[in-house]
From TrEMBL:
UniProt GO MF annotations: RNA binding
Domain R3H as annotated: residue spans: 82-148
Entry-linked Gene3D superfamilies: 3.30.300.20, R3H-like domain
Name recorded for this polypeptide: R3H domain-containing protein
Length: 154
């Protein structure tokens, strides 16, 4: 599907009348369509809102035509999404240090499902920090639990 996916995204961006310099599909843990565009401000929008909407629309269209498994990809424009995820990782690392230092659980700010997944993956092999999601809807967040405190509560 990567070749078809590349053609689909190219056609979608052409329909939006957006200039695209390069488009590269990388597969692996996640399929990422990296778009290089001088019209990045139009594609990304304020706080990434347009990019989120573009990803949602593109995934729904692919899902309808090829099924749910084919729709697990991410469109990233000029590295914006990866920069945002690095900010999430950096904040989580800082708060994890606080959890280790004070040996106490720390709650992160509410975040999207994808951002929570990134944080859970970041600490998957950490010997001192365990992650859990708590809350509901747009208030759902990750809690970084110091493992000694988790054992003491049990």
């Amino acid at each position: 599907m990567p070749a078809d996916l590349k053609n689909f995204i190219t056609e979608l961006l052409a329909l939006l009348e957006v200039e695209v310099g390069a488009l590269e599909v990388t597969t692996g843990h996640r399929t990422v369509i990296a778009v290089d565009s001088p019209d990045s401000s139009l594609l990304i929008g304020p706080r990434g809102e347009h990019l989120k909407a573009l990803n949602t629309i593109a995934r729904r269209m692919v899902e309808q035509k090829h099924g749910e498994e084919a729709a697990s990809f991410l469109i990233d424009v000029n590295g914006f999404h990866e920069m945002e995820m690095e900010k999430v990782r950096a904040a989580a690392r800082m708060l994890a240090q606080r959890a280790r230092l004070f040996k106490h659980d720390v709650e992160l700010a509410p975040m999207s499902a994808y951002e929570r997944l990134v944080v859970h993956e970041l600490f998957a092999d950490d010997p001192e920090i365990k992650t859990e999601s708590s809350g509901e809807g747009k208030f759902r967040r990750v809690v970084l639990k110091y493992k000694d405190s988790a054992l003491a509560e049990s």
